[in-house]
């Protein structure tokens, strides 16, 4: 009996660690993708959640048009402006089949650009917005650099093969994130189809279905051992691409489990593009969550300001700050510290008045400007605003100071004289006796 008990105890001790939940990982292993380049980015924070050759040079193909559309939206205030089609350039690939003499609004052309991936539309919009295609491409590059896409150089607005037209998966994810900030852009890339009535120059209705099969496909694919629809209801954008040099490319985004992620997959294959992208999207949805560390509206503070009309300065962080964390990580590792600048009046609403520092495990991770929520002015501000009165008061103050100095000097001299006379009198009395 003792031998049996000892045997069972030995087994228990040996295999107990296997059942210890502290050694279990609830996160899926990193995705194994066919694509040569891929990045998964959290939309809210911009954090990279997965990276496969994310900073290596690649050709973006028609995913370029996402940035073309962003630049158009940034520089055209009225999307109802009508663009007359004339002097059409010759361009290969997918086309809206525009004809000389037709006219479309900027919005209608943007629909064709993003939904059907029309190359002729890209050229028309570039010339309309930039004055020339070359100037518009410079605008694309400038805008890309301004958001940190440092390894990108566009050489056309459509993405057809060009050795000087290149980017990285990280840069494209960054640009997709920026473009998705625009509501009109979001609405277009989530549109399943678009149609245009016949015109005199083109007497047929144009009907285009979104090239993003996550939105429109009626086919299936094998995913994790099961046949599932390619169409994925959580996906709401953004852009496809393909050339022989670039391979199959897809920028995609969606929201699930309260997190939006952006997938950038490049140089995949016909069979694996949507499998790679679905795998990457689900990896983000299933393994990460977003935690708000600083809510600027919950962090409104004030400080008394001596000799000010308003009595106090009200301030808050300029922006919120959130982080994407793996499901088994702890948000309690974060702490914050407030550092106010020396107060110098006047202060205008929006002025920087300090810094909010965010620490992770006592290491500085982020600095956020603290900005004023109100104007703070000196009680003497009226005098400064009235220059004549201000100058008169300065003169009067100067005279008072001078008079005071003269008074002090005279008083000091008088005391010296009195002291001297007193000493002289004492000496005379001594000699007399």
TrEMBL record:
Protein name: serine-type D-Ala-D-Ala carboxypeptidase
Pfam families: PBP5_C, Peptidase_S11
EC number per UniProt: 3.4.16.4
MF annotations from Gene Ontology: serine-type D-Ala-D-Ala carboxypeptidase activity
Protein's UniProt keywords contain Heme: no
Catalytic activity as recorded in UniProt: Preferential cleavage: (Ac)2-L-Lys-D-Ala-|-D-Ala. Also transpeptidation of peptidyl-alanyl moieties that are N-acyl substituents of D-alanine
Signal peptide: 1-20
Entry keyword Protease: yes
Ranges for domain Peptidase S11 D-Ala-D-Ala carboxypeptidase A C-terminal: 288-378
Annotated binding of substrate, by residue: 239
Native source species: Romboutsia ilealis
């Amino acid at each position: 009996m003792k031998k049996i008990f000892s045997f069972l105890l030995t087994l228990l001790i040996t295999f107990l660690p296997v059942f210890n939940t502290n050694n279990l990982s609830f996160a899926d292993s990193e995705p194994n993708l066919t694509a040569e380049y891929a990045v998964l980015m959290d939309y809210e924070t911009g954090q990279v959640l997965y990276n496969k050759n994310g900073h290596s040079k690649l050709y973006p193909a028609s995913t370029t048009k996402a940035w073309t559309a962003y630049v158009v939206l940034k520089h055209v205030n009225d999307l109802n402006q009508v663009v007359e089609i004339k002097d059409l350039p010759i361009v290969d690939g997918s086309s809206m089949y525009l004809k000389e003499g037709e006219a479309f609004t900027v919005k209608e052309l943007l629909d064709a650009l993003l939904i059907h991936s029309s190359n002729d539309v890209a050229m028309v919009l570039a010339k309309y917005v930039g004055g020339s295609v070359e100037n518009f491409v410079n605008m694309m590059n400038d805008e890309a650099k301004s958001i940190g896409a440092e390894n990108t150089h566009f050489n056309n607005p459509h993405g057809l093969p060009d050795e000087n037209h290149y980017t990285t998966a990280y840069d494209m994810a960054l640009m997709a994130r920026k473009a998705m900030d625009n509501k009109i852009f979001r609405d277009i890339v989530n549109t399943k189809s678009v149609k245009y009535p016949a015109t005199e120059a083109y007497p047929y209705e144009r009907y285009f279905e979104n090239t993003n099969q996550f939105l429109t496909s009626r086919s299936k694919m094998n995913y994790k051992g099961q046949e599932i629809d390619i169409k994925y209801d959580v996906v709401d954008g953004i852009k496809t691409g393909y050339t022989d040099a670039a391979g199959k490319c897809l920028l995609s985004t969606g929201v699930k489990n309260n997190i939006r992620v952006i997938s950038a997959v490049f140089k995949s294959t016909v069979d694996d593009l949507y499998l790679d992208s679905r795998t990457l999207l689900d990896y983000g949805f299933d393994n990460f969550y977003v935690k708000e560390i600083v809510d600027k509206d919950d962090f409104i503070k004030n400080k008394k300001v001596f000799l000010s009309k308003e009595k106090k300065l009200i301030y808050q962080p300029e922006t919120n700050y959130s982080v994407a964390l793996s499901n088994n990580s702890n948000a309690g590792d974060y702490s914050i510290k407030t550092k106010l600048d020396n107060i110098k009046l006047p202060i205008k609403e929006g002025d920087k008045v300090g810094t909010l520092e965010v620490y992770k495990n006592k290491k500085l991770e982020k600095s956020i400007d603290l900005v004023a929520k109100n104007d703070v002015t000196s009680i003497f501000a009226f005098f400064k605003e009235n220059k004549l009165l201000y100058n008169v008061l300065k003169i009067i103050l100067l005279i008072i100071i001078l008079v005071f100095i003269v008074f002090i000097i005279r008083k000091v001299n008088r005391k010296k004289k009195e002291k001297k006379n007193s000493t002289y009198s004492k000496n005379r009395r001594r000699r007399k006796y």
